[in-house]
Each structure stands twice: as structure tokens, then as C-alpha cells.
Amino acid sequence: MLSTSTGDALWFGGAVTEAARRGAIGPHVHVRLLCVPPAEDDHSGITDAVRQGLRVKVTDRKIETSLLIDRRLALVPSGDVNGAKGLLVVTTPTLISALAESFDPRWDEATPWELTSARPDAFEQSILGCLVGGMTDDAVANRLGVSARTVRRYVNVLMARVGARSRFELGFRAAEFGWLPGTALD
To answer: Do the Cβ atoms of 67 and 75 come closer than 8 Å?
Structure first.
């Protein structure tokens, strides 16, 4: 198990992604990358990490950059009062356990990258807006100039994307993810 978190410019994720691309990470190694929401121009790097098999989640909580490898080794950035940056290699089991215990709950509560990056397009947002407004599938279809079957297909895709089991849950998740104007829930 390889776990990494990144909260600043020193991004282990890029190095780990490159290692995966080169085949240096075996198929039995599970890689988890926890990061803060990236700037728009960093999305391709995260998407590349996912393509290389890394599991990526995003958190709004402040996190410190670290890399844990099989709970046997940790890499943590270090700096001194003069601003010099270095890398601290941790092999002490007690310290590694503490880092893992800090990482695991944050990982569990973080949002999978696929959900944060897969924002609905304009058409899907139109469907969501109509549904939240209480419109039936037929009324949505009429307004958007498509068939009710097409509306149902898009609703099913959106529900699958957020793991919703009902239309109500889809509306709640859409608000939670900020997919509807002025509705992001904290």
C-alpha cells in the first residue's frame, strides 16, 4: 500500500504517477493519493495519475504533504527557518503508524476524484435544474427538445456518477458537489 497526501507545491503525486507509468510500481501495490483541490491547470496531472492506476481523493481539509509506503517507510518534507527544503525519511514504526492514523480518516471522508472532476456539462446541468425545480421527465424533455427517454437516460447516468439510489439523493448530491448554482453544502 502506497499512500500519499499533498497540500502544497511539493507534489509526490507527479513522481508516483511517473513511477507507475514506468512500471516501477507492481500490480500488487495499491496507491492512494489524497490532495487538496488542484488549480484548474493541474487537473490533467491528477487525471493522468488516475489513468496510471492511482486512487485519488480530494479533501478541503488542510493536509501536510507526505508519502507512506507499505506502512514501513514515510517521506515527509522538511524545512528550516531559512526556508531550505529537504526530505525526511521516516522508518520508525511508531511515527509511521501516527502518519497512517492521520491519513486514513481523512482518506475515508474525502471525495473521489472522479466525482469532483466529472462536473455535469451544460445539458446535464439543465436537466438537474429542471428536476430540482420539480419538473417531470416529460416536462423536462419538452423544455429541452428531447425525448423523455433521453432525459431518463441522462438522469440514470448522473445517478450512477454520484452513487445515488434515488432522484432525491441525486438532487442532494448535486447540491453537495456544487453542481447547482448557489447550492454547495458544507
So the answer is: yes
